[in-house]
Amino acid sequence: MTINELADKMIQMRFFAPEELVSFPGHIPNRGEERVLLFLYKQNSHIMVGDLTDAFGLSTGRMANILRQLEEKKLISRTQQKDDKRKFEVALTKKGIKHSEALFQDLQEQHQKFLKQMGKKDAEELLRLLEKAVKISDSHS
Known about the structure:
Helix content is 63%, strand content 9%. With 141 residues, it is mainly alpha-helical. The protein has a single domain (3-136), classed as Winged helix-like DNA-binding domain superfamily/Winged helix DNA-binding domain (Arc Repressor Mutant, subunit A, Orthogonal Bundle). The protein is globular. 16% of the residues are buried.
């Protein structure tokens, strides 16, 4: 794998890593607007609000507040489902995609710098071990 691929993999893995494992460079917020934007960006598709709420383990009220703020900033759009007026689908707007790309690029650069300093072999070993740690942590959840 290239350093770029390793950094992308590390970022993706850190979205779901326990708190103890996220103290590497490149702050990924645990909750909030930036985390939702990055999640939507990496999903690269529309998602139902309920599925998004479940993915983050947030209350529906907290997720509604985050989505309202993102919508006010014109970073996302919410579309009511025709068959069930209680359900909404969320997607990034063009402005949201551009903003998310910048956030992700910054994370990518920070992770690349960190991984380059470790060297390719050690970076691959670190990711292998972190993946193992996440699997072990998940099995205890």
